[in-house]
Each structure stands twice: as C-alpha cells, then as structure tokens.
Input
Amino acid sequence: MLWTAVFYGFVFDDIYISCRYAENLRTGNGMVFNLGERVEGYTNFLWTLFCVPFTAAGGDPAVYLKILSIASALVLVFVFYSSLREYWGSTDKAFIMALFLSASPYFAVWAHPGMETTFFSLVGFLSGYLIFRKKYFWGFLVSSTSPLIRPEGYIFFLSAVLAFLTVQRPFKITKLLKYLFFPVLILILYNTWRFLYFGDLLPNTYYVKMSGGLLRIIPGAEMIVVGLLLGGTGYFLFLAFTNRNRDFFTLYSVIVSWLFFAYSVSGTPDFFTTYRLFTPSLPFILFASAHKISLKNKISKIFLYSLLALNVITVLLIGFFFREMKPSLERAHGSIALILNKEASKGDVVVSQEMGLIPYRNPDLYFYDVIGLVTKDVSMKLFQEGVSPFTMYLLSKTPEGLDRVQKLRSEMRDMIFEIEPDWVITVAYPSWSEGGKIWEEPNSKLSKDLLVSYSSQNVFFYNLLFDDRFWERYELVKVFPSYRIYYVLLFQRKPETVD
Output
C-alpha cells in the first residue's frame, strides 16, 4: 500500500507499445504496430495479449496493467515467503527475506509502472517452486511459458532443466522426456508461429540492442557498480554464489541469479539505476543467500535492519521522482497526441523516438521509429553497420570510428527524408539549470532556440536538425514541457513543400 501510494503516477511509456499491438489485434488488423508491417517490436508476447481486453474496456489501459502488475508482485511475495518458510522451517527468516524482496528498489519500482516485470518474475519463481515440490510436469510447463512473456525466459527454462539433470541422479530418460514433451512442444509451436508471421526467430529489439557490439556496455558501465550497491544486491549476490547446497531449488536459484546478472550487464544497454531486466533474479538471489542469514547474531541483525531501512529510504526517494512520470507523460505526449488527432490526416507519417502513448492514441497514423524498435529498416541498418546511438560518442574518438559514425548519420538522415514525414517529434534534454529557466516560458523565442539546440544534439536523431533540408521542409509547431530536463518538440511539414 505504501509503494502504491508513492508510485501512483509511475507509468512507463513503453507499455503503450504493447497496447497499440493489442488494439490492432483486437480490431482485426493483426499483431502489428503499423498497419501492413509485420515487425516484432514488443518483447512481451503474453503481456501484449493481456492488453487486448484492457484496450476494449475503455479509459486508460495503463490503469488495468498497473493493477495486474501490482497483483503479480503481491502474489510473488506470498509465494516467496511460503517457499522459504517451507524450505528453511523458519518463519522469522522467511519474513525478513520477504521484507527485503518487497522493499528492494528493483522490486518496488518495477511492481508499479504496468510492465510485465513482476508477472515474469512470478512465473519464473513459481516454476522452480513447483519442481521443488516434486510437481515436475507442472513446474516445467510453467517454466516453458516464461519465454512467451520475455525472451530471457529461456534462462528460467534452461536453468530448470540443468538443475534437474544435476540433482536427479539416477534418472530415466523416458521420465525426463515425459516431463519436457509438452513444454518443448509449446516453445516449438510459439517460435514456429513467430517465424512464419514475422519472418525472424529474433525479436526486432535484438538488432537494436545488440548493434555496436560489446562496446555498448561501456556507456553504462558505472551503473553496474551502482546496481550492485543498491539495496545490498552485491552482498546478497556474493552470499548466493557461496551457497554450496546442491538441492534443486538452491542450484536453480544460483544459476538463475548469475545468468540474469550476466545478461543484464552484457546483453542489453538497459543500464537504469533500477535494472528492470535484473529484477526477475532478485527472489532467487535472496533465496540462495538466505543460508548465511542469521537473526540470532546481534551484529547481523543490526546490519540487516540498517540495510532494510536504507532500502525503504531509497525507494521513497525514487518514488517521489517517478510519481511525476504519468503527469509528465500526459503533459507532453498526451498533448501532442491530441493535436495529431485533430490536425493530422489518416496515413500521415510521423517520425519520432517515442513509440508509446502518442502512437497508441493515433492508430491511423504511420510511425517511423528512429531508434528502430518497431521499424525494421532502422534496426537492421544499425545492426549491419555495428553502430548504435549508445556507442557513437565512443566510436567518434578515433578517426576510423568518426568516419563510421558520420557515414551512418548521413545515411540515416537520407532514410528519414526519403519517407517524406508529415510530422517530426524530437526530444530535448537541457541541463538542470537551463531546464528550470525554460520551464516558465517554454514557447518563448529564447526557449525555443535553446531547445532546438539541445534537440539537435540528440543522438537518436542522427544530427537531423543540423541538416539544411530539415529547415527547408519543416517548422516548429510547439514545445511541450514534460519535466525539467525533458522537453518534446513537434515539427510539421511546411505546406509549400507538400507534393
């Protein structure tokens, strides 16, 4: 209840990507973002299906998704507590670890924005718990649904199989095949459908996030240290690694913990302070580390309760910042969506880096994603060139790298102008002090000039605003303040340049 009150305004723009797919599916247009284009721009298939009835219910689907996300978190805390109490035979230890789970910045933050994170975490932990209870068939069956929620769900499934093979000796191959037949069949059918429908076994986001090679890790490397310190995660991860128990549940938890850590660090540039992609491993880290937790030692108790208090304070601080997410989303993106609803024509092309709320509320417009999540041309171009917005700065430090970056930016601008967009939505990230000054009068000439300058430096737009062709063809309609360091600019094609 505390976290819900603190995070009541936290809604993540990305949830509306799933909502747009769900709305198109519900209205008979297929699993697509833009009509007629089959691009797997989501990474949460089952969660996207959950969105279908919510888009038909009326109102903002984010409200229903937040409720589902919070409910999943509550169920996970209950299952986590019950499993530890059963495993350790200690109510006190189970209770204190359940407190750590619910008060962890990772868990508390991502329980509330309406994303699939806690539901995914619940499915992964529940599958291990079922196998621990010797309900092997149901455990593997539940585990096999996790890749349908998120691609990294294969970590859960493969970890479960590996842990089972390690501890179940001797075992009969016929019995293992009996347990795995339907789970594997589900995965085969799901991936066959994906390949036949989208023409690829990899989601489109893979090409975006993997472009740039391992160099993409460097820009967010400092967040690894922050992530390990946040909530005492590094401490618990170390305890989990030192756990020498070889029963299924412990081995499964240790494998999952370290694979998710490796994935969150090297598999994606998702270097938020509160790692969204690392959160599903938290219950396993806490479970595997509980063997060294003692509530009888006075020093241990002081350390644990101090860490718990620090977690609560950290989550409160994050929460009071994130609660502005929903109001800021409506201030900027909601206002632009309203203008496009009134002034854009059906089929108009919109270039933007924001593929959430605005596209969802404008289903008849075509959206071209400069990041590439839902636009195949962009994602494949970045992947083939081995350059991403996250690595451009680092590459530019060498003459060869600078040539590659400039070549990519030029070609990306050509691609954007080639589609002749009717609208362009850019984002400006001013400094804290400049943003405060602009906030009072965002649409004054001085503010617009400053924001255009900041928007020109936005790496996701490949220096588009530095190109003379842009100012020949487009004019600034209005500036929309989201929050102090985040402003959205709406440009429209000049009438005289429209064929």
